Amino acid sequence: MAAHFDVIIVGSGAGGGTLAQRLAPTGKSILILERGEHVPREAKNWDPKTVFLDRKYRTKEQWYDRRGKPFIPNTHYWVGGNTTFYGAALMRLRKGDFDETTHSGGISPKWPISLADMAPYYMEAETLWKVHGARGVDPTETGDEPPYAYPALKHDPGIERLKSHLENKGWKPFSVPLGVDRDEQHLVTSPCIRCQTCGGYPCLVKAKCDARTRAVEPLLDLPNVTLLTGRKVVRLETDGPGKTVTEVVCETDHGEERWTGDIVALAAGAVNTAVILQASANPAHPNGLANGSDQVGRNYAFHTLTAMVSMTAAPVDSTFPKTLAVNDFYWRDPDGGFDYPMGHIQLLEYMTGQTLEGQVSDWLPPALVPDIFMNAVASRLLSFLVISEDLPMQDNRVRLGANGHITLEYTHNNLDGHDRLVAKLHQALVGFVDHAHPFSQHHVQLDSLLPLYGTAHQVGTTRFGTDPQSSVLDPFCKAHELDNLYVVDSSFFVSAAAVNPTLTIVANAMRVGDHLKERLG
Question: Of 136, 139, 169, which is closest to residue 152 (Cα–Cα)?
């Protein structure tokens, strides 16, 4: 195998896998270095005990908070990255998310690109990842978006009733755009079967559209694309002046390996990309590679997230509830009294007792989640995720310690709008009960703010911009200080917005890929 490639990509998730896919038709030699392995296809892919209690597929490594307390991040190192385990919600950033926006807690800064720059790539990504959705219902849309190539998934009866309940309150719920290979007109041959093991699980039948199924695996037989697993990239080395990455150094079970490429693209995730750059300090870059601005690792965000578990007296008639979302409060409270952004609400996946125990017992106080609760009421649960923007802050950052420990120094911010949105949802759900049930007025809700381990929506740490003094990357995600280093994971985000980041990562990697096509000739 040649040791030199035209392009080396570190990571095979939404950003890295998509960039490889975009560049593969050029015929250029591409090397993908992935620290994980292929997810084994086994019955345990669909076993809630294995996934949520034993956490077989989740990393065992420890990170540390700002007080030095260890925690295990909700991160998965496999081919396809975290998308292999995500919930397949694929939403565009809203038009205003690209602009400077005033929140109650501060300013969300302007991006160096606009929605117009991303729109054609969003459309392409939605089609490639088979996003099922409906236009003209989400009140935050601009109104000129093209129709989705695939229709929205049908709501289960219980979710249809919830939709009507919210509409009666004046809300405008809409269908969650979901990347699943579902054909409701031909159910016998539809790959997606609307099972109860989607978000959080690797899809055993590969019907969830993720980086491994839509980007990486279609490339595996191409002669110009090489995927090497079990390669953890630990640092990048440069020439003397520090202008060009000359070697990619990785650890393997067989010892150290070094690879060279004309272009190097980091896509290891917002935390690990920052760690690689910090570990690559040299005389030309004493503060870390590409870090003359002192911005590498800073501005870490992972959304302000509250999971709300709502229990009704009667069972909820739904086995695939994640089809409904609400954006009425995205920019402000339409009822008045709060003229700042609040955020987004979406339903979560079906929860079994074991799923609830694994996902929520370390999220909520133990006294609130006894075993009997877990096992007895799963069929009566509706689970919601309330997402608000946490603002990029200089001191919310990733640090690599001298001992190799990864530290996340983070303090929650901009909570006022989020707390109001949680209260809005609380209030709206109080009346959602089955009035024919003898205990129809019984209704319990539990909620708690997601702690630091919830890294699934991690963004920031090497944000892009036009000013090298305040950003790490230029508008095409090339490091200001190096001529052949790019970043295509969620690190480039200037702000987190308040919707799931995956579609934006994919669309941006396509955009950067087109830029690199021109550069590579």
Answer: 136
User: Token match 């160096």: residue?
Assistant: 112
- d(C-alpha 27, C-alpha 482), whole Å: 25
Q: State the Cα–Cα distance between residues 508 and 112, nearest whole angstrom.
A: 13
pLDDT value, residue 402: 83
Report yes or no: 311 and 489 within 8 Å, Cβ to Cβ: no
Residue whose structure tokens are 């272009």: 263
**Predicted local confidence at residue 438, as pLDDT:** 41
Q: Which helix H or strand E contains 14, and what residues bound it?
A: helix 14-23
Cα–Cα distance measured from residue 163 to residue 157, given in angstroms and rounded to the nearest whole number: 10
pLDDT of residue 382: 81
Residues comprising the chain, all counted: 521
Nearest to 446 by CA among 502, 389, 395, 384: 384
Q: Give the separation between CA 381 and CA 17, rounded to whole angstroms.
A: 36
Task: Please provide residue 288's backbone torsions phi and psi, each rounded to the nearest 5 degrees.
Answer: 110, 150
Predicted confidence at residue 4, as pLDDT, reads: 94
pLDDT score of 374: 54
Q: Which residues have CB under 8 Å from 216's CB, separation 6+? A: 12, 17, 20, 21, 32, 79, 80, 227
pLDDT (tens digit, 9 = 90+) per residue, 437-447? 443 334 455 56
CB under 8 Å to 228, separation ≥6 — which residues?
31, 32, 33, 34
Q: Evaluate whether 354 touches 374 at the Cβ level (below 8 Å).
A: yes
Residues 6+ apart with CB under 8 A from 288: 277, 278, 279, 280, 281, 296, 297
Which regions in the chain score pLDDT beneath 70?
A: 1-2, 312-314, 350-380, 433-448
3-class secondary structure, 355: helix
pLDDT given at position 310 = 76
Query: Are 303 and 378 in contact, with CB atoms under 8 Å apart?
Result: no
Per-residue model confidence (pLDDT) at position 339: 97
What span, in angstroms and rounded, lies between the C-alpha atoms of 270 and 445? 33
CA-based nearest residue to 430, from 205, 165, 170, 39: 165
Q: Is the separation of the CB atoms in 147 and 135 below 8 Å? A: yes
Cβ(322)–Cβ(176) below 8 Å: yes
Instruction: Look at residue 52 in the predicted model and tell me its pLDDT.
Output: 85
Tokens of 110: 């302007």
Residue indicated by tokens 């003229």: 339
- CA distances in angstroms from 108 to 111, 390, 393, 501, listed in the order given: 9, 9, 10, 16
